[in-house]
């Protein structure tokens, strides 16, 4: 492992651990205000999973010389995606019937996102058929997450159903897209060198991962009416 | 009958008597402690099966040591989580009840595993056995605490419960896997593996002690 790779791993782990700790602190503050607490709790879980995934990979790289292809580290990454899916479900959990009706028409266009995700993953499986389980493990949860992110982004933008969250969903979509391109670079096996692979792809993923927290924080600051993200927005159906 | 079953019977028999005599929360705690013992016994069978499969035909190109790092944590965490999931899904308990039940399962699992280490201890270095018993015991309890605390915050939120529980299970499995990975090494990494569960447990306990009242998602 080169020094640059090591710095890359460490920066990702440290960033995720700090974000997780900050998420817990935000959770406590939000809980005191009776506002948005669950969002920060789930975000803290997401960052903890990301940190543990990368810690496991780094340790296996140190101990075994090369990380396992399919390992509990992958499961932790999937767990992180599951936390983001839980956030998306929490956002739609207490919608009024009118909000549900308004959001329903964007379900079909939102299917574009999982279709693209699955197309990418089918391409990866064609390149590396030996690790099909790995791509299925990543591909299916990512497709579900991208569906919810695009659906809620479209819904928030057009109908005013929780419009403050559209920044957050946009960042989640960007995170998914960067992951797909990161996998694409890895799967093609071309020698792009450290600059493209580690400085651009990896640090872009680090940036996107960190941005999810700031996007959620932005929501809280914009939430001037103190409409809880976990509650239906007052007056949205009027 | 092998040593594992004898240990299980020796531990479970007095607890069973106590569970019959006692009532309420104490009975529930003892009952789930026994389920933790049973989960550890079951995981021992499964791990033995995995080890046999690996040593026989090199399953999935893994060595036994790698299988213990990759497969065992997932298997053990699933078996530990099943009684808790059952309790949450069927009995719809209060928040504190979930944490207590999850801890009971974790403690039962840790107690059985420690007994097994102690039985093997005569053939091994006492310091190693003591360190392993302490750290593995705390690690199992910490994983159970993580699961219980997380579940207690999301279990009443309908559709959130399933993906949230899965995510928590993934997190607990990875924490366990990191511990197993380090514990299989020697020197500094082994010391880190011993210290890691204590550190995380202290952080969680401090967090709960300081802010416990602020963290209630549902007012009861």
Give a short summary of the structure.
Chain A is an all-alpha fold and 238 residues long. Chain A has nine helices and no strands. The relative contact order of chain A is 0.14.
Short descriptors:
heterodimer; A: 238 residues; mainly alpha; 0% strand; B: 220 residues; 8 helices; 83% helix
Describe the structure.
The complex is a heterodimer of chains A (238) and B (220). Chain A has 238 residues and is mainly α. Chain A has one domain. Chain A is built from 9 helices and no strands. In chain A, helix 3 packs parallel to helix 7, helix 6 runs antiparallel to helix 7 and helix 7 packs antiparallel against helix 8. The N and C termini of chain A lie far apart (59 Å). The C terminus of chain A is likely disordered. Chain B has one domain. The longest helix of chain B is centred in the first third of the chain and has 34 residues. Chain B is globular, with a radius of gyration of 18 Å. At the A-B interface, helix 1, helix 2 and helix 3 of A face helix 3, helix 6, helix 7 and helix 8 of B.
β-strand amount of chain A: under 5%
Please give the most extensive interface between any two protein chains, plus how many residues each contributes: A-B, 37 and 36 residues
**Which sheet architecture does the biggest sheet of chain A show?**
none
**Assembly state:** heterodimer
| Number of domain modules of chain B | 1
Low-confidence stretches of chain A: 223-238
Alpha-beta content class of chain B: mainly alpha
Let me know the largest β-sheet of chain B: none
Overall number of strands of chain A: 0
The number of distinct helices of chain B, counting runs of at least 4 residues, comes to 8
Tell me the β content of chain B: under 5%
What string, H for helix and E for strand, traces the elements of chain B in order? HHHHHHHH
The general outline of chain B is globular
Distance between the termini of chain A: 59 Å
User: In which range does the helix fraction of chain B lie?
Assistant: over 70%
Q: Please state the overall shape of chain A, judged from the principal axes of the Cα atoms.
A: globular
Helix content of chain A: over 70%
How many beta-strand segments of chain B?
0
């Amino acid at each position: 492992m080169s020094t640059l790779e090591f710095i890359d791993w460490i920066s990702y782990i440290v960033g995720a651990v700090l974000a997780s700790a900050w998420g817990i602190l935000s959770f406590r503050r939000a809980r005191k205000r009776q506002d948005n607490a669950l969002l920060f709790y789930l975000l803290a879980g997401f960052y903890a999973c990301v940190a543990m995934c990368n810690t496991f990979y780094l340790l296996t790289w140190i101990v075994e010389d090369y990380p396992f292809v399919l390992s509990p580290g992958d499961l932790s990454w999937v767990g992180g995606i599951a936390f983001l899916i839980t956030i998306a479900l929490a956002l739609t959990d207490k919608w009024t019937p009118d909000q549900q009706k308004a959001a329903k028409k964007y379900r079909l266009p939102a299917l574009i996102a999982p279709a693209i995700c699955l197309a990418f993953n089918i391409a990866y499986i064609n390149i590396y058929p030996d690790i099909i389980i790995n791509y299925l493990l990543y591909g299916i949860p990512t497709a579900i997450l991208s569906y919810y992110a695009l659906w809620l982004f479209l819904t928030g933008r057009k109908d005013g159903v929780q419009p403050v969250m559209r920044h957050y969903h946009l960042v989640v979509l960007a995170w998914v897209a960067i992951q797909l391109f990161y996998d694409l670079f890895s799967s093609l096996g071309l020698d792009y060198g450290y600059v493209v692979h580690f400085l651009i792809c990896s640090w872009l993923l680090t940036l996107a991962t960190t941005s999810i927290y700031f996007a959620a924080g932005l929501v809280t600051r914009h939430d001037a009416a103190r409409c809880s993200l976990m509650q239906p927005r007052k007056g949205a159906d009027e | 009958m092998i040593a594992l079953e004898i240990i299980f019977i020796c531990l479970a028999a007095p607890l069973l008597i106590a569970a019959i005599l006692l009532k309420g929360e104490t009975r529930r705690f003892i009952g789930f402690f026994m389920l933790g013992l049973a989960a550890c016994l079951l995981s021992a069978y499964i791990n033995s099966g995995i080890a046999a499969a690996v040593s026989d035909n090199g399953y999935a190109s893994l060595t036994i040591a790698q299988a213990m790092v990759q497969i065992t944590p997932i298997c053990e965490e699933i078996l530990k989580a099943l009684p808790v999931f059952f309790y949450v899904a069927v009995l719809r308990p209060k928040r504190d009840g979930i944490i207590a039940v999850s801890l009971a399962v974790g403690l039962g699992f840790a107690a059985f595993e420690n007994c097994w280490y102690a039985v093997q201890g005569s053939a091994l270095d006492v310091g190693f056995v003591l360190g392993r018993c302490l750290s593995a015991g705390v690690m199992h309890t910490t994983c159970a605490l993580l699961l219980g605390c997380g579940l207690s915050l999301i279990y009443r939120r309908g559709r959130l419960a399933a993906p949230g529980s899965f995510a928590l299970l993934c997190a607990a499995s990875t924490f366990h896997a990191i511990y197993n990975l380090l514990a299989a090494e020697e020197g500094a990494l082994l010391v880190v593996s011993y210290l890691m569960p204590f550190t995380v447990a202290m952080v969680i306990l401090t967090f709960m002690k300081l802010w416990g009242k602020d963290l209630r998602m549902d007012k009861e």
